[in-house]
Amino acid sequence: MSKEEPTSTTAQPEQMQSQANSGATLNVPNTVTVGRVFLAIGTLCLLWQPADSLKWTAFILTIIVIWMDGIDGYLARKLKQTSKLGGILDIAGDRVVEMAYWICFAVLNWIPVWIPLLFLVRGTFVDAIRAHASEQGFTAFGQNTMMQSPIGKFLVASNFSRFTYAVVKAVAFCLVVGAHTQLGQQWSLEPIAMFFVYFSAVFCVIRGLPVILESKSVFQHRA
Questions:
Q1: pTM for this prediction
Q2: DSSP tag of 156
Q3: What number of CA atoms fall less than 13 Å from residue 13's CA on the CB side?
Q4: Topology of the domain covering 1-109
Q5: Cα–Cα distance between 32 and 44 in angstroms, integer?
Q6: How many angstroms separate the Cα of 147 from the Cα of each of 100, 135, 182, 210, 211?
Q7: CA–CA separation, 216 and 149 (whole Å)
C-alpha cells in the first residue's frame, strides 16, 4: 500500500494537466471557429440549388458566417480562454472560409478564376512568412508585429485596415450570392458585386506586399 499511494499522488497532477489541456483544446471559442467552417461549407452547397429561396438562405447564412468570425475572438477574451491553438485555428478557419467562397464562386462561373488563385498565392506566401516570424517572437498584428515601417504597420497591422478589408470581403460575398437571385438580377446587383470582388483582390495585394517586402528583417533576426 505504501508504494501505491505515492504513485496515485504523483499521477493526480498529470491527470489534472491532461484534463486542463483537453479543456483548452475543446473550449467554446475553438468550437465556434470550427463550427463556422462547417457552416460555411454547408452554406456554399446551397448555391448549386436552383430554388431562389435557397440562395437567399445562403445569403443570410453567409452573414452569420461572417458574424461568427468576430464572435470566437470575443468569446475567447470574455471567457479568458485565449490560447496559441485558438489563434492558429482562427487564422486557419479564416483562410478555409475565404478560399471556399472564392473557389465556389469561380466554379459557378460567377467570378474569374484568377481571383481565387490570387488569394491562394498571396495567402500561402504571407502565412509562410508569418509562421517563420512567429518562431522569432513576432506577431502579425499588435505591439510585437513584424511590420517595421509606418506604412507597413498601417496597411497590414492597423485595426482600420484589417476592419476595412474584412468588411469589403464580407460585402463581396453577400452581394455575389444576392446578385444571382431573381431579385438581384432585377436590381442589377452584379456590377456592384463585381466591384467589391475586384476591390477585395486589390486590397489583398496591397496588404500582402508589405509583408513580403519587409520579411528580410524577420529572416535576419536572431533570437
A1: 0.82
A2: I
A3: 4
A4: Four Helix Bundle (Hemerythrin (Met), subunit A) (1.20.120)
A5: 18
A6: 28, 15, 45, 8, 7
A7: 13
CB atoms within 10 A of CB 203: 17
Spell out the domain ranges in the chain: 1-109, 112-223
Q: List the alpha helices (DSSP H) in the chain.
A: 4-25, 28-45, 52-78, 84-107, 114-135, 150-152, 159-179, 182-186, 190-213, 216-220
- At 188-218, the pLDDT tens digits run 999 999 999 999 999 999 999 988 888 776 6
Torsion sign, CA atoms 115, 119, 122, 125: negative
What pLDDT, on a 0 to 100 scale, did the predictor assign at position 221?
56
Is residue 32 within 8 Å of residue 75, measured between CB atoms?
A: yes
Q: Which residues, including other chains, have CB under 8 Å from residue 95's CB and lie 6 or more apart?
A: 123, 127
Whose CA is closest to 205, among 98, 109, 121? 121
What is the grid cell recorded at 135? 518562431
